Amino acid sequence: MKKKKQKFKPSFGTAEDNDGVRAKKHLGQHFLKDEGIAEQIADTLSGSNYSKVLEIGPGMGVLTKYLLQKDVEVHVIEIDTESVAYLHENYPALHGRIYEQDFLKYDLSQVFQQESYAVIGNFPYNISTQIVFKVLENRDLVPEFSGMFQKEVAKRICEKEGNKTYGILSVLTQAFYEAEYLFTVPPSVFNPPPKVDSGVLRLRRKENYSLPCDERLFFRVVKAAFNQRRKTLRNSLKTFDLPDSLREDTIFGQRPEQLSTEAFMDLTLKIQPYAISS
User: Fold this and answer.
1) Residue 30 marked as a ligand binder
2) Binding site annotation covers 57?
3) DSSP alpha helices (H): ranges in 113-260?
4) 215-275, what's its fold?
5) Per-state percent for the chain, helix, strand, coil, to nearest 5
6) In angstroms, how far is CA 3 from the centroid of its own chain?
7) Degrees (nearest 5) of the Cα angle 141, 50, 61?
8) Are the CB atoms for 148 and 175 separated by under 8 Å?
9) CATH second-level architecture of 25-205?
């Protein structure tokens, strides 16, 4: 039976303004103050194929409280000392599972070894793309990933070929995950309010997420293609020094935004015999 798509109905402005921790501009902090949205973000997790969840940047725990109500073991990682102190004082259920660390630099195997876990959060805009790439690096252990981004970034991650916002982040993420944009969140539900809308998305790892081509070459091809996105692949991939006979293939006459993730895999397979050792 086909599962009915979940509908999201944001309820804005239902919570009081946050008190206790000062938002720090250099950390990109914007504290969510809407309880309804926090609960909906927590509900984006299915709980399938994992029993542990890692929340990135919990701040004062507006999302954390709803994660703790679920049948999962919640871990949080937070770089802000003031927020860490607040979490220790107000969320005793997290004892031993609060990590005062930089997520981008932290070795997650210290926490989860080889156990699967989901990743969730209200992500700082200034490092959200880097967070996605780190999740991709750890995809063998992350079957599900959801949370809030700057709307433009969330849309880009979920975008399909044929659109101007489709790019490196779209292709590399969708090579391994099914991406779904869920709902938009206005600036008014944050303290302090950001200058742009936010967007909530969900990534669910594909059942078969191993690539049919060389993975490192796939990343190189995608990045080289979009670094000169206005050019055809015949021109943007010149650095691969491919033979003229291959470059006459019709796929090289297209621009990168015209290719689906699967088409990029096929392209990589065509290039692979010539470029795998370069």
Assistant:
1) yes
2) yes
3) 128-137, 151-158, 168-174, 215-227, 233-236, 244-247
4) Helicase, Ruva Protein; domain 3 (1.10.8)
5) 40, 15, 45
6) 23
7) 95
8) no
9) 3-Layer(aba) Sandwich (3.40)
Measured between alpha carbons, how far is 75 from 180 in angstroms, rounded to an integer? 24
What strands lie across the sheet with 117-122, from one edge to the other? Answer: 98-99, 73-77, 52-56, 117-122, 144-150, 198-205, 177-185
Q: pLDDT of 19-35, one tens digit each? A: 566 644 554 456 688 89
How far from 31 is each of 104, 159, 185, 198, 253, CA to CA, in Å? 20, 27, 13, 12, 47
Give the helix ranges, DSSP H, for 91-187. 109-112, 128-137, 151-158, 168-174
Number of C-alpha atoms within 13 angstroms, CB side, residue 145?
Answer: 29
The conformation of residue 10, written as its DSSP 8-state character, comes to -
Residue 93 in tokens:
């259920």
pLDDT tens, residue by residue, 217-267: 999 999 999 999 899 999 999 999 999 999 999 999 999 999 999 999 999
**According to the annotation, is 78 in a ligand binding site?**
yes
**Is position 138 annotated in a ligand binding site?**
no
Q: Compute the distance between CA of residue 177 and CA of residue 156 in angstroms, rounded to an integer.
A: 14
Long-range contacts of 260-264 (CB under 8 A, 24+ apart): 260/160, 260/161, 261/161, 261/170, 261/171, 261/174, 261/175, 263/161, 264/171, 264/175, 264/218, 264/221, 264/222, 264/225
What is the domain partition of the chain in residue ranges?
25-205, 215-275
Cα separation, 237 vs 247, in Å, equals 9
Take residue 236 and report the two structure tokens written for it.
């943007």
262 labelled ligand-binding: no
The per-type count for the chain, helices as H runs and strands as E runs, is 11, 9
Q: Are strands 144-150 and 198-205 parallel, antiparallel or unpaired?
A: antiparallel
Question: What is the reported pTM?
Answer: 0.88
Task: Report residue 234 as tokens.
Answer: 């015949």
